[in-house]
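step: validate -> pass
step: tokenize input -> pass
step: predict -> running
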Amino acid sequence: MRITLDPKDLPEKWYNVAPDLGFTPPTLMSSSGYPLGRHDLEPVAPSGVIKHELEEKEREPRIPEKIRRLYSEWRPTSLFRAQQLEEHLETPARLYYKYEGGSSSGSHEANTAIAQAYYASRDDVKLMVTATGNGEWGASLAFACNYFGIKCKVYMVSSSYQEKVLGRFLMEVLGAEVVSSPSDSTRTGKKALLQDPQTPGSLSLALSEAYEEAASNDDAKFSWGTIMNHVVLHQTIIGLEARLQMRKARAKPDIIIAAVGGGTAFGGLVFPFYRERKRGMRMIAVETAAVPSLTKGRYAYDYGDAEGFSPLFKMYTLGHSFVPPGIKAGGMRYHGISPLVSAMYREKRIEAKSYSEHQALEAAITFAQTEGFVPSPESAYAVKAAIDEALACKARKERKNILFLINAHSNLEIDLFKRFLEGTVEEHPFQESQVQTALEKLPQVAI
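step: predict -> pass
step: emit ->
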């Protein structure tokens, strides 16, 4: 069953959860250890993005009409009831999923890419620089920059650059300059290559390279694809639509589930339900057991990038110097979780679960064989949690409404699933000793 919205129902405002949290999240800090201000972000971010990042009181900032018009090319996205999966599981639970794979880039990340490119164009920015794992974020920013005549440069994690060539090719077709990270074109990259010429790279390292370039170029701005408050804000278009669609289906969600890499897709789906959540509603963030920032990380101030160029975030982190293992869900290979999502977990407003990559991929195949398409490796973690919750409802004979997010399709990753079926995908255990080493290098922040 497909639940759609009329284009006229496209939300006119984003949703800022901060005023409704019931507690004050920890202050964002500059890299030098002082409360973050506009002047700290002005060298690397457009003015409209800075306003969204630092906003604490405005609950519903208006979406500019230009952004709404571009959103309307693929939004509102559909909500589906997974009835074939329900029948396969023989569960009384009702499973609903919000599908974000219909944009030109095939990912939810277009929601913030369009917004960031729009605000950059208002400041006459000539180049946007960013970092990506599998390439979905880089492709999203590349296609968004094309709308506004802005050049795009993407530092792509080395392991993904070599293995995820379809993502790289897509970015290049869309006009982006794609550089393998670590590279020999930045001080950060040269340092990393000197330390380990065979390093697979990491998203935090690629972010450092992009941040370094943007800060040294007056015509360029840096673009975040995850973790930041403004990114979560732009992603709330997902949950705002889903809330209307669940009402249309006459089904209030009892359980809401999304995967977390940096946490912005999770926040995008969950936050709009938070203000009017009913008693007993559960919100579950699902992470990979190989990079379990929420369930095994430390709640502390840390940098968003490997070299410490970014602001300091109070978040659950495995340490900015940690190099995650080479799991195939590249969007999950990040050391920290959104400060807003982290604060909610700290305050016990949300739950967290973790699964191995094999568990997630197996669930994705079950979903594909019942519902007809293959979710992204990142979304597979949410699918696994949704299936487990549906089976728990079966055991308890409970008829609950479960809402989960599929934030991208798997068109660029289908070879991964083929190799998984052939038994050639390696499992990656949690590297506890490396995490402990990284956590010893956390910055010391006096507040």
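step: describe -> The CA atoms of residues 106 and 408 lie 6 Å apart.
step: cleanup -> pass
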